[in-house]
Amino acid sequence: MNKNLKIFNVLIILIILTISLCLILSSCNSGLTQTSNEQSNKENTGSIERSSQRVGRGDGTFSSSESSISQEGSDEAGGGSDNSGNNGSGNNIDNNNDDNSNNQETGNENSSSQANENIVTTENPTTESIDTENNQQAYEEVYEKPSVKLNIINGPEYAQDGLICYYWVKAEVTGNPAPQVDFSKDDSKGSLGGKIVQINLTQDEIYNLICDAENSEGKSSSSIILKWVAEDDVSASDETTSEGSNQQESSIDYSNPGNFRIDVNLTAQLVSIYYNENLIKSMKCSGGTAESPTVTGTFVTSQKIYSAWISKFNMGAYYWVRFYGSYLFHSVPFDKNWNMIVEEANKIGTPASHGCIRMTLEDAKWFYEKLPLGITVIIHY
Predict the structure, then answer these.
(1) Is 367 part of a structural domain of the chain?
(2) Cα(271)–Cα(131) distance, rounded to whole angstroms?
(3) Sequence-separated (6 or more) residues with CB below 8 Å from residue 211
């Protein structure tokens, strides 16, 4: 009996020792696991900092999506440490985190590389755009829309015993490429060259010579009125020297409108300018038609407009000078591309307008630039 009791006591002691040993081993394993997890957290934290530094070096900014991915990796590592009961699971999580960190670092470097490539790609079109603008500027500097101006270089001269009065007219043309020049008439049949023509006139004839210049950049027109002048009248006018003519021009005071008077004869379709009651210039014109006549009476010039487009009539003109309401002096009409409307220009000397007084482009320019506002205008038949 005593022997059995001793054996039982020994077993109890062994059981107690065994339980104590198990508790000690369990406590040691927990300490090792905690140490491993703390080391893992430190490595994860270092990985996050290295990733952040590399991203910062890449473009100076941090991606919010990359930071959240790193944080999620860190949280997952901590969760694995709490749930695992052995070192093997903790090591697997550490290895996965290291792999994730490496992948993330590689991704950051790739992102930085891709950003740099994008910057290069973006710069190239800008450079090409600048080159294109420079080329366009060079193109605009080289090419030019034509301009043309007609000048009488000879005449009036006479032929066939004074039955024909003729002029030589030259076109002063600019533009690049060299414009093609086309005259409405040339009685020399091209013998004077491409930019000089001869215009023959019979007794009392008036002709409006029109010249068009055109190149790839556009088109321009100019016109000039050529009038029959009797040979006897030319002989009388030759007695006045050019010096005397210049002296007469210099004696005109264009600053005082009270010295001038404008007379418009709608029967003769003629505008006459008087200075101190002396005629200084006469210009053929086109007044209103019977359907849209020009007002008659005494008026005063009041406004100047360099150019204007009248959509109602689908026409524009230059050198407008108002004398009453919607009635103005102005040049012959131009179309929407600001090319002279030839058929309208050829009507100078006949009623053709909507009520305004039309003049040739050269006469309208002189009228606009030379005469001051405030001049009395008398319009009559």
Answers:
(1) yes
(2) 55
(3) 148, 150, 171, 181, 182, 183, 184, 221, 222, 223
Same domain, 366 and 325: yes
* Residues spanned by the domain of 107: 2-139
Residue 36 structure tokens: 């491993």
Q: What pLDDT digit, counting tens, does each position of 157-216 carry?
A: 887 777 888 898 989 899 898 999 999 999 988 877 788 999 999 888 889 999 999 999
Instruction: Point out the residues that are catalytic.
Output: 330, 356
Query: Each residue of 305-349: pLDDT tens digit?
Result: 999 999 999 999 999 999 999 999 999 999 999 999 999 999 999
Residue after which a domain boundary falls, among 120, 139, 158:
139
Indicate if 179 and 131 belong to the same structural domain: no
pTM of the model: 0.40
**In a shared domain, residues 285 and 346:** yes
Question: 256: which DSSP letter?
Answer: -
Quote the CA–CA distance of 219 and 197 in Å, as a whole number.
Answer: 20
DSSP 8-state code for residue 245: H
Assess whether 199 and 265 both reside in one domain: no
Q: Which residue has the tokens 């006479």?
A: 158
| Domain C-terminal end among 139, 156, 186 | 139
Residue 239 forms part of a structural domain: no
Q: Is residue 238 part of a domain?
A: no
CA dihedral 360, 364, 370, 376 (to 10 degrees): 110
pLDDT in tens, 236-273: 444 433 333 343 566 899 999 999 999 999 999 999 99
In order, the DSSP letters of 4-62 are: HHHHHHHHHHHHHHHHHHHHHHHHHHHHHHHHHHHHHHHHHHHHHHHHHHHHHHHHS--
List all residues 6 or more positions away from 79 whose beta carbon is below 8 Å from its beta carbon.
none
What CATH number is associated with residue 190? Answer: 2.60.40.10
